[in-house]
Amino acid sequence: MAELLRLLLDVSEKAANVARVCRQEAALFELLVQEKKGADKNKKFLKDFKTLADVIIQEMIRHDVCAQFPELNGFIHGEESNTFENGLGESVTVTVCAKEEDTAALLAKVLDGDLTAASLLTKAIHHKLQLRDEKAESLQLSLSSDEVAIWIDPIDGTSQYIEGKEEEEPDEGFCPSGLPCALVLIGVYLRATGQPVMGVINQPFKCKDFMGQGWRGQHFWGVSYGDVNVCSFTQRRPLCLQKRDHLSVMLSSSEKPEVKDVLTTLSNVKLMYASGAGYKILCVIQGLVDVYLLSEGSTFKWDSCAPHALLRALGGGISDLNECLRSSLNGSDGRRPELTYHEPNNKSQGVDKWANRGGIIAYLDSSLCDKTVAALAGKI
User: Fold this and answer.
1) How far apart are CA 11 and CA 16, in angstroms?
2) pLDDT tens digits, residue range 51-103?
3) Of 142, 256, 353, 372, whose CB has the highest number of CB atoms within 10 Å?
4) Average pLDDT of the residues of the chain
5) CA angle, 227 as apex, 226 and 233 as ends, to 5°?
6) How many angstroms separate the CA atoms of 185 and 198, rounded?
7) Residue 264: C-alpha distances to residues 241, 253, 257, 268, 359 (Å)
8) Other C-beta atoms within 10 Å of 154: how many?
9) Three-state SS string across the chain, please?
10) % of the chain beyond a pLDDT of 70
11) Would you state the torsion angle of the CA atoms of residues 38, 202, 320, 331, taken in this order, to the nearest 10 degrees?
12) How many CB atoms lie within 10 A of CB 32?
């Protein structure tokens, strides 16, 4: 399983390169955006988009992982449908081929015959890359790959990726919106129980490079299985925030007014906002906020699986908010039902089968999770 982690780090960096390539030329990027329809659409948004970058990244990860771990074939799940419609109205199934020239020909069909763009993307897809991480390379883990499955969110925060606002992430802070909110998320969970055991987060657009051209990224990973709890991110909270005397709660700007109203009436509570579910949870992982909560079921298994594994490795977790509220009202203190990732929701169709439909609360410190839940119980 340590080999799987190293492979996921490599493919996450390849994915980040694809995401950066697809943003380099505005004219190219305009060809890549397509509105989702029907069951594939997230009902939270009036318009829900996917990009060819999303689809390419998802299929590239699936191809590369199955090439090294064929036993995972059929157990790698993603957010996106791998069909794309070109300018002629033709529906093209996007896959990564064994030969570079075959992938280029397929992408040229999607891109209305644009061979230059297809070649550029193909080179990024088939590029041999190794992301060095000494801590990951030294990890030992006695877990078989035929016991696990994978969730991929190829670009979490797609709307921010499409808009492309070039804000750089400040030191020891976060961006409310912009390209830094777009993440590549790869989560590994146990097939039998749905427990998240490994996660990789790649942030392709951390900051501009030193010459002001292009972007540089960063990556994080975590493993939580048995007695092994290891994370690339070891400092729970930036030093400048360790002495703060308020509870910071991260919300979506579209959160229900009654949730905001309850929290704003509490003393020593600060509400904070950012884009992208994965990015909000990353802010919790980094200790930039205490908790992130969302009262609606508008996040999905692919959004939360990877960062959930990192939080578990650091002693935190992600729980079903509605179940936590119910438990609090019933006096079952300390019961925080964590999300699992192996079973679809009953009587749901399309993407809703995999929604975190009870809402979520993500935390590092369980006492702060309980404090937030207690404040909301019976009031929303």
Assistant:
1) 9
2) 788 888 999 999 999 999 999 999 999 988 888 777 777 888 989 999 999 99
3) 372
4) 88
5) 105
6) 11
7) 21, 14, 10, 9, 20
8) 27
9) CHHHHHHHHHHHHHHHHHHHHHHHCHHHHHHHEEECCHHHCCCCCCCCEEEHHHHHHHHHHHHHHHHHCHHHCCCEEECCCCEEECCCCCEEECCCCCCHHHHHHHHHHHCCCCHHHHHHHHHHHHCCCCCCCHHHHCCCCCCCHHHEEEEEEEEECHHHHHHCCCCCCCCCCCCCCCHHHCEEEEEEEECCCCCEEEEEEEEEEEEECCCCCCEEEEEEEEEEECCEEEECCCCCCCHHHCCCCCEEEEECCCCCHHHHHHHHCCCCEEEEECCCHHHHHHHHHCCCCCEEEECCCCCEHHHHHHHHHHHHHCCCEEEEHHHHHHHHHCCCCCCCCECCCCCCCCCCCHHHHHECCCCEEEECCHHHHHHHHHHHCCCC
10) 89
11) -170
12) 22
Instruction: Return the active site residues.
Output: 54, 79, 153, 155-156, 158, 303
pLDDT tens for residues 23-62?
876 656 666 665 545 555 444 433 334 678 888 899 999 9
Specify the residue for token string 């606002």: 165
- Give the tens place of pLDDT for each residue, 191-247: 999 999 999 999 999 988 777 678 999 999 999 999 999 999 765 544 444 445 789
